[in-house]
């Protein structure tokens, strides 16, 4: 989590400076940035409060081992690569890590840091650090100095919760305080899924500035006053229709002989709309009474067509004529009617699923006799309760 959140923070940070960059996880290092002028590699260490990093710490030497191995095998161009070790641990005063802090700290001294490392390597018999010492030994004196010249150690770095707070501060400027957290949750969701796909396959490269800008801008637009976000995990829900066979909205379709495939589509839209509306509500993205006002619009539009059907059918209509008329209204609700809850929210499952939610509550129906026929089916259960 720390690695992913720190990488996302790097993306947000770079996004504010331009688009000519890319960032990857577990490519050249824990996090790798390729920016104008070179590469930046990050080693990240998340430790409990009170932990310190000394010249003998395994965190320090494991990091040095990775970088020394890369330098020895010409996998690391020290002329164009900056090396950062970020640890939430405190740095022991006058230790190598302490002396390799950025110049702005006022304590950076690469010569003393190298002496401290060489002294620790000579004195230590740690088995945990054995391979790191061997990698360090393979470097010449000049190579050690060149490597340390590129290393910057950040101690007491922001932990995973602090990085989240920093991210919230950054996204506030994009969507405001009210929507900052739900916006960040969705941005993190995309970032984590994107990173997982990158790690699992060789088909996806690092996240580029252009790609991140597209995602960030699109998500920000979904949080504008005229829009609502559509969550990708909800938009791909595929429920099993058999689990919903007894629900009223499915029985409404049974009354008018809707085929199995279309019933499956209706269940899908119902679940997606129900879940998305619930998440909007949980995230406080809806205005007071907004769902009620939206449903009133849907019902009133349905009432126009239903009343017209009643006039056209008349008392002597056959069942075949009733079914044909009902299917026209159903077709209108699922294929033509697209009332938007907000003008920018044009996802079809929202309106289609909302009609099925209303049908489940018997506020709308398709067959001209839907109320009496469904009540006849449902009444025994109600009579039992009474």
Give structural notes:
It is built from 15 helices and eight strands. The protein has helices at 2-15, 58-72, 96-99, 110-123, 130-137, 141-150, 160-200, 209-222, 232-235, 248-255, 260-282, 290-313, 319-336, 348-360, 370-385, and strands at 21-25, 31-35, 38-45, 52-53, 81-87, 90-91, 151-154, 207-208. Helix 4 packs across helix 6 and helix 11 packs across helix 14 (348-360). The longest helix has 41 residues, at 160-200.
Structural class, by secondary structure, is alpha/beta
Q: Going across the major beta sheet, what is the strand order?
A: 7-5-3-2-1-8
End-to-end Cα distance, whole Å, is 53 Å
How many separate helices? 15
Q: In sequence order, what are the helices and strands, one letter per element?
A: HEEEEHEEHHHHEHEHHHHHHHH
Beta-strand share of residues: 5-15%
Layout of strands and helices, then pairs:
Blueprint lengths: L1 H14 L5 E5 L5 E5 L2 E8 L6 E2 L4 H15 L8 E7 L2 E2 L4 H4 L10 H14 L6 H8 L3 H10 E4 L5 H41 L6 E2 H14 L9 H4 L12 H8 L4 H23 L7 H24 L5 H18 L11 H13 L9 H16 L1
Parallel strand pairs: 3-5, 4-6, 5-7
Antiparallel strand pairs: 1-2, 1-8, 2-3
Helix pairs in contact: 1-7, 2-5, 4-6, 7-8, 10-14, 11-14, 12-13
Essential attributes:
386 residues; alpha/beta; six-stranded mixed β-sheet; two-stranded parallel ribbon; 8 strands; 9% strand
Summarize the structure.
This protein has 386 residues and is of the alpha/beta class. 59% of the residues lie in helices and 9% in strands.
């Amino acid at each position: 989590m720390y690695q992913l959140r720190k990488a996302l923070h790097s993306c947000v940070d770079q996004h504010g400076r331009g688009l000519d960059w890319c960032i990857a996880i577990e490519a050249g290092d824990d996090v790798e940035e390729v920016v104008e002028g070179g590469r930046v590699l990050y080693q990240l260490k998340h430790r409990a409060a009170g932990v310190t990093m000394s010249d003998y710490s395994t965190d320090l030497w494991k990091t040095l081992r990775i970088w020394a191995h890369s330098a020895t095998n010409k996998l690391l161009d020290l002329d164009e690569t900056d090396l950062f070790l970020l640890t939430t641990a405190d740095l022991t005063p006058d230790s190598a890590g302490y002396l390799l802090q950025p110049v702005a700290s006022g304590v950076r001294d690469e010569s003393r840091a190298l002496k401290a490392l060489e002294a620790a390597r000579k004195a230590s018999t740690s088995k945990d650090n054995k391979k790191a010492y061997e990698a360090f030994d393979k470097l010449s004196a000049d190579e050690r100095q060149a490597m340390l010249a590129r290393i910057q150690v950040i101690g007491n770095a922001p932990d995973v919760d602090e990085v989240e707070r920093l991210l919230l501060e950054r996204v506030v400027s994009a969507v405001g305080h009210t929507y900052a957290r739900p916006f960040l949750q969705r941005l993190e969701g995309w970032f984590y899924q994107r990173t997982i796909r990158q790690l699992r396959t060789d088909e996806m490269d690092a996240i580029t500035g252009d790609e991140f800008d597209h995602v960030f801008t699109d998500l920000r637009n979904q949080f504008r006053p005229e829009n609502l976000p559509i969550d990708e995990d909800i938009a791909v829900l595929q429920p099993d229709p058999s689990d919903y066979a007894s629900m009223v909205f499915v029985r409404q379709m049974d009354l008018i002989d809707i085929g199995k495939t279309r019933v499956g589509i209706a269940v899908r839209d119902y679940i997606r709309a129900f879940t998305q509306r619930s998440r909007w509500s949980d995230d406080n993205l809806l205005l007071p009474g907004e769902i009620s006002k939206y449903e009133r619009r849907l019902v009133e539009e349905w009432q126009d067509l239903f009343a017209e059907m009643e006039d056209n059918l008349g008392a002597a209509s056959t069942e075949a004529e009733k079914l044909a008329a009902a299917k026209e209204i159903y077709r209108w609700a699922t294929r033509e009617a697209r009332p938007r809850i907000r003008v920018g929210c044009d996802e079809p499952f929202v309106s289609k699923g909302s009609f099925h939610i209303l049908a489940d509550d018997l506020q709308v129906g398709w067959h001209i006799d839907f109320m009496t026929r469904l009540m006849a089916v449902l009444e025994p259960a109600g009579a039992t309760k009474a």
